[in-house]
Amino acid sequence: MRRILIVGSGGREHALAKCFKKSPTVEKVFVAPGNAGMGDVATIVPIGVMDFENLINFSKYENIDLVFVGPEAPLSAGITDAMNQAGIRVFGPSAKAAQLEASKSFAKQLMNQYNIPTAKHVTVFSKVEALNYLTSHPAPIVIKADGLMAGKGVTVAMDDETAVAAVHDIYQDISYDPLVIEEFLEGEEFSLMAFVNHEKVFPLEIARDYKRAHDNDKGLNTGGMGAFSPVPFIKDEWVQDAMNNIMIPMAKAMVDQGIPFTGMLYGGCMATKDGVKTIEFNVRFGDPEAEVILARLLTPLDQVVLDVMDGKDVELTFDPRFALGVVMASRGYPQSYVKNTPIKNLDSLGVDVCHMGTDWDDGWVNKGGRVLFVMDLAETLEKVRETVYKEIARIDAPGLFYRSDIGQWKEVQV
Ligand code: AMP
Ligand code: GLY
């Protein structure tokens, strides 16, 4: 029987904990630092994600068989390298391989070198250079700050004023990091994640994420406001295209560069009229995609991860039903928001909840930007949508908001 440590504290980590917990070969699940809402399936360990020394000491003391790292920050800071050195089995890419997410310009450069389809781009190094470029490249255009921004450093500018404002905005916060400015792509977006070990790539089922804060894709980009899986209007041939032209070539490219990738590889994909293109790579499970995909994964997660790490082939089976979930976020997110507002009726719901950012203070309160992921499974998308929204309406949380159009989509001509 295995003992698992999950590193992270959001909805993705709660979903991981639930998934590991249901495996017949898992004895105990710990989450560090976790959040108060994960106590149903895991033991919460008060060690931060960047405190590698204490995470290593804890793993040794508790005889942890597998450490699974959720978020990107500890990965790009080298948690995997540190744990490997200490002789602990950890699933996630090395710091060098994690650059694929941490640096948009690194990822772009690699995609160009290996002919992996993506939007055309330039990297600029100053505000003046950025503004100059914009004068000859009108909107629609996309501006991306380099570095880890939790999906929030991207502006899809549909007019020139927005593009210029985004450049000014970014250079208020950062003074030296490069900016990526890229061509606007139009099409159907999907998230494709895979367990990767060097050249071996084992895809999970795809999910659809909703990046914008408000209904009808209005508002700022967020980490994700809702998700569902499977995604019936994404054709199998597009997923195959993404595997053949994006995921497998990138895994091979990393090997070729001498920085082989082991961990979860996330391809943000867009099916366009010129084939499937890469929007971004992440080096970890997406959040909230993990919640809906892991709810459908029937193969025991601990065995999958250990087999992948051992270089074995794995077969993944999924519940054919639709999983759908809606994020309840703190009013103001993804900008500043008020914390510690009450959340009532949470424990009497008839559907599953992943806690993204709650705390317990004589009752549930909000602590993070994204707070709850309310989700369920059903035979049809309509049915699961209806159930989830009915249950959300029962939650009494005046400090939170949510999108009311998760599970609906406008078909884009591809
Ligand atoms: P990213 O953090 O790079 O995934 O960008 C966040 C979101 O912005 C994506 O999920 C897309 O919805 C949108 N986006 C990013 N790049 C582009 C692009 N080149 N064209 C159109 N939309 C984009
Ligand atoms: N939901 C997208 C991400 O995790 O980056």
Task: Walk me through the structure.
Strands 12, 15, 18, 20, 23 and 24 form a six-stranded antiparallel β-sheet that branches. Strands 3-2-1-4-5 form a five-stranded parallel β-sheet, sandwiched between helices. A four-stranded antiparallel β-sheet has the order 6-9-7-8, sandwiched between helices. Helix content is 29%, strand content 29%. The longest helix is centred in the middle third of the chain and has 21 residues. Helix 7 runs antiparallel to helix 8. With 414 residues, it is α+β, with helices and mostly antiparallel strands. A hairpin with a 3-residue loop joins strand 13 and strand 14. The chain is globular, with a radius of gyration of 20 Å. It folds into four domains: 76 residues, Rossmann fold (3-Layer(aba) Sandwich); 64 residues, 2-Layer Sandwich (Dna Ligase, domain 1); 122 residues, ATP-grasp fold, B domain (D-amino Acid Aminotransferase, Chain A, domain 1), CATH 3.30.470.20; 79 residues, Glycinamide Ribonucleotide Synthetase, Chain A, domain 4 (Alpha-Beta Complex). Bound molecules: adenosine monophosphate and glycine. The site of adenosine monophosphate (AMP) has 16 residues, from strand 7, strand 8, strand 9 and strand 17.
